[in-house]
Design goal:
By secondary structure, the chain is of the alpha/beta class. The protein has one domain: P-loop containing nucleotide triphosphate hydrolases (Rossmann fold, 3-Layer(aba) Sandwich). Helices cover about 50% and strands about 15% of the residues. Helix 8 (about 155-165) crosses helix 9. The longest helix has 20 residues, at about 205-224. It starts with a helix and ends with a helix.
Length: about 220
């Protein structure tokens, strides 16, 4: 079944959405590895937008001017199993997207609604089979996705996981996650046909295994 998925040329997408610190990126990478297909990181396109804004001396927090700049360039995200690539007008710029300057600008860029629409358009141009995570991949960007998962967990559980990765105060992180959930409530909600997976009482291995069973079952059912 895995070989059958990776050999298809038509676009076949598996989406993992969910709130902040739900583990969706880690699980998406694990599923992509099991399926032998690329994991697509939409964040690279936001980094590309920030990079182009900085290179042109444009305001990363702008909207109309920034989108006008982006629309004049041909930006493409090319999935690879060993890491995605980004090209601008045919030139690879992937290595230039991970700098302190881009790190500092990318949040302002990603906050612009028209930039988000531009990123979504670039994502829809990707062909082939891949796994992608985000806030609204299954609901807005890839409503035709073959399998959609929505990972979530209680805020205090997600906070504890994040504190485990960083030197931070649990109460402060929990409060920050609750605020982020409230801000993202409209955008980060499951598609009507997504399978919701609450990982509050699961460790990472259990979460990956549960998600894999859901995906494998959906693919097998579609192929039968």
């Amino acid at each position: 079944m895995i070989a059958a998925v990776s050999e298809r040329t038509a676009r076949e997408v598996i989406t993992l959405d969910g709130p902040a610190a739900s583990g969706k990126s880690t699980v998406a990478r694990a599923l992509a590895e099991r399926l032998d297909v690329p994991f697509v990181s939409s964040g690279l396109l936001y980094r590309a937008a920030a990079y182009l804004a900085l290179a042109a001396g444009a305001d990363p927090s702008g909207d109309d001017a920034l989108v006008h700049l982006l629309e004049r360039r041909r930006v493409r995200l090319i999935p690879h199993r060993d890491g995605d690539r980004v090209t601008v007008d045919g030139e690879e710029v992937t290595e230039r997207l991970h700098t302190d300057a881009v790190d500092a600008a990318v949040s302002a860029v990603a906050a612009r609604p028209r930039v988000r629409a531009w990123v979504n358009e670039r994502l829809r141009e990707i062909d082939g089979a891949f796994v992608i995570d985000g806030r609204d991949m299954g609901r807005e960007v890839f409503p035709e996705a073959r399998c959609k998962l929505y990972l979530t967990a209680r805020p205090e559980v997600r906070a504890a996981r994040r504190v485990g990765e960083r030197d931070a105060d649990l109460t402060a992180v929990t409060d920050a996650i609750r605020r982020r959930d409230a801000a993202d409530a409209r955008q980060s909600r499951p598609a009507d046909d997504a399978v919701e997976l609450d990982t509050s009482d699961l460790d990472l291995d259990e979460t990956v295994e549960r998600a894999w069973r859901i995906v494998a079952g959906r693919l097998a059912a579609d192929d039968s």
